[in-house]
Structure formats: structure tokens, C-alpha cells
Design goal:
By secondary structure, this protein is mainly β. Helix content is 4%, strand content 47%.
């Protein structure tokens, strides 16, 4: 929450000061960081950073590349553009909304703490819509195959909303956007703490909905069935007490009861790497400091961690083929640390 962005390039087991490539104070707390094609001009080498009141896109360049450093020198961060947000942000996701072509840049959707979805295309603001039945912010993911957003509402329902349905709904105003976020929102959206009229979301209809009966902690897209067709995939929902595997049309395929308190999850591919939806296992970290690997509904590996993980990611270090799990963990003293664990499942 200090707003400091650090980039490391570890090459050995022990830490070295040369592993730190960048340390820069961005001046505001950092809620989320993602790599993507957020600019038509600079392509897929952009870094999208979400602050509570802004979404900024940076270009990452190697300051010593011209001197033949082969990418191992210090890097620099250059601001390309920034969108100031009138509503406090919670998270964002990106993708080819509207089934854009591979040559186009990705669109960005920012979810605010009050349920407002704001859409951006490069430097232009497109539109904003309020989610129906919204109380507190939760997970939101974009499904490329169906061109839909999957999220949960205050009734513990998982719902999928097509991008076309969001774009064509009434929203907050019938006027066309000018491309400037602040001026458009000032003319159409209520002020923070203001009353949202019921009519602003009455036409935002879900493609399907499913009653989960519990809070959803995370949503991921992965294929867990090893003998399933190449084009199939599952919507994996990590709940307070269950792991749900749901088909793209909103039908529960499997439901795994958990005997512990889950904290976070991450799917990683283990087979069929050349396909759009490779077969995946699921990593789940618990509040009891345990890490489990699920192959569909079966636990195939388990270990006890020396911390409680609040986030888990998968990465590949150097040229090794072993998957590495990187954790952001909390301790009882309130401090945070970054750990990594390797395994062969």
C-alpha cells in the first residue's frame, strides 16, 4: 500500500542485490498489476497498474539494451497514459471484449467498490454500467470464448453477463461518450454516496445465473477433465466451503466439499499445452497454512507452509521446466513476504 513497484530478475537461489531491476515510487497505493496489450502503439509490452483513484499504463524498457546488456540491466518505467477514476477502484480485468481481433489492443474493465464497471479502450473512456444486485465487490473474470463477464452478486448467485448486453444496456445516460472519463462520468454518474436509480440497471440482464449459497472468493477459467474435448473448459469457483466446477452454460459439473478455510487458488496447466484450454490442476492455499494440489476433485499433493498465503501465482524460473509457486503471505505481526516453492505435479 506504499505505492512502490519493484521488479526482480532472480538467477540463483540466494538473493543478490543485482536481482532488483526496478524500484519506483508511483505515489499512490497499488491495488493490482497486470501485463497486457493496453496500447495500440506499444503492443503487449505494457504494464497496467490500478490505484484507488486511477488506472495507469506504463511502458517497460531496458535502459542498457543499446549497450548489448541482453536484457539483464536496469529497466525504466515510462507513463503512457492514465485515467482518473471518480469511484474508488477494487480490481480490473482485460481482454478482447466484443471478440476483437488478435491485432487489436485489449480493452480494460475497472470494477469499483460500489459496483460500477468502467470500460476503457487505450486512452479513450467507452462507457460505464452498474452491476445489478450489488452489495460488496467480489471476483470478476472475463471469459474469452463466450465474450462474457462472470461475477457474483449479493444473493450469492454466480452470473454471466455478455459484453454486448452490457454495452447495449441503458447505463446511466443516453448520451454518447466523449472519450474523456471525468467529463462523461460527471455528466452521467451519481456522485460518491449518491442514490443510484433502479432504472439505471433494469436492462442489464444476465445470460445465466446459478445459486451458490455461499460467498465466492475467487473465479478462474480452466479445464480440469483430462478426457474432455479440446475446446471445453470449466468455470472454477472457490467458495467459503466448496470448490465448484461449472460448465460454460451455468451447470454444476462437480462440487467438492472443503474441510478447511480456503484463502486463495490458482489453476496451472499440466497437459495439452498447445491447445487454447490445456488440462489444469488447481492450487488451493488455506488459512491453516496448508497447500493442496487438486487434479479435478482429487488431492494429489499437499504440504504445510510456514505462513498463511493470501495470494498464489505460477511462474517458470530461467530455463527449468519445474513449475514454481510464488506466494504473498501474511504473518501474525502484519508483515508480508514473498516465497517460492517448486514441485513436480
Amino acid at each position: 500500500m506504499q505505492g512502490i513497484l519493484r521488479i526482480w530478475r532472480p538467477e540463483k537461489r540466494d538473493f543478490s542485490p543485482s536481482d532488483l531491476l526496478l524500484e519506483q515510487d508511483l505515489g499512490a497505493p497499488i491495488l493490482q498489476v497486470s501485463l497486457g496489450n493496453f496500447s495500440r502503439q506499444f503492443g503487449p509490452t505494457c504494464i497496467g497498474i490500478l490505484h484507488p483513484r486511477a488506472f495507469a499504463v506504463y511502458e517497460l524498457t531496458n535502459s542498457l539494451a543499446s549497450q548489448g546488456d541482453n536484457g539483464s540491466g536496469m529497466v525504466q518505467l515510462h507513463l503512457l497514459y492514465s485515467h482518473q477514476l471518480q469511484h474508488v477502484a477494487h480490481m480490473f480485468c482485460s481482454g478482447p471484449f466484443g471478440k476483437r481481433g488478435p491485432q487489436d489492443n485489449e480493452l480494460v474493465c475497472v470494477q469499483s467498490m460500489d459496483g460500477l464497471l468502467s470500460f476503457f479502450d487505450d486512452r479513450a473512456f467507452l462507457f460505464a454500467r452498474f452491476l445489478p444486485l450489488f452489495l460488496v465487490p467480489g471476483p470478476l473474470i472475463y471469459v474469452r470464448d463466450t465474450d462474457a463477464f462472470v461475477t457474483v452478486n449479493s444473493s450469492f448467485e454466480l452470473m454471466a453477463i455478455k459484453f454486448q448486453a452490457i454495452a447495449s444496456s441503458d447505463g446511466q445516460s443516453g448520451t454518447a461518450p466523449t472519450g474523456d472519463y471525468c467529463s462523461d462520468m460527471a455528466a452521467s454518474a451519481p456522485s460518491p454516496g449518491g442514490v443510484i436509480e433502479i432504472g439505471t440497471t433494469k436492462r442489464l440482464q444476465a445470460d445465466w445465473s446459478l445459486q451458490l449459497g455461499e460467498i465466492a472468493l475467487d473465479i478462474q477459467i480452466a479445464k480440469q477433465q483430462r478426457l474432455a474435448a479440446v475446446s471445453t473448459f470449466d468455470i472454477i469457483v472457490l467458495g467459503e466451503h466448496h470448490i465448484f466446477s461449472i460448465t460454460p452454460n451455468g451447470v454444476i459439473r462437480t462440487q467438492k466439499r472443503l474441510g478447511y478455510h480456503p484463502m486463495c487458488a490458482k489453476a496451472y496447466p499440466v497437459a495439452d499445452f498447445s491447445f487454447s484450454h490445456p488440462t489444469c490442476n488447481l492450487l488451493v492455499a488455506s488459512a491453516e497454512g496448508q497447500l493442496r494440489v487438486y487434479a479435478d476433485t482429487s488431492v494429489v499433493w499437499m504440504a504445510r507452509l510456514p505462513f498463511v498465503a493470501c495470494c498464489v501465482l505460477i511462474m517458470q524460473v530461467l530455463a527449468t521446466q519445474m513449475p514454481i509457486a510464488a506466494f504473498v503471505c501474511h504473518t501474525f505481526t502484519g508483515s508480508r513476504a514473498l516465497w517460492s516453492v517448486g514441485w513436480s505435479f
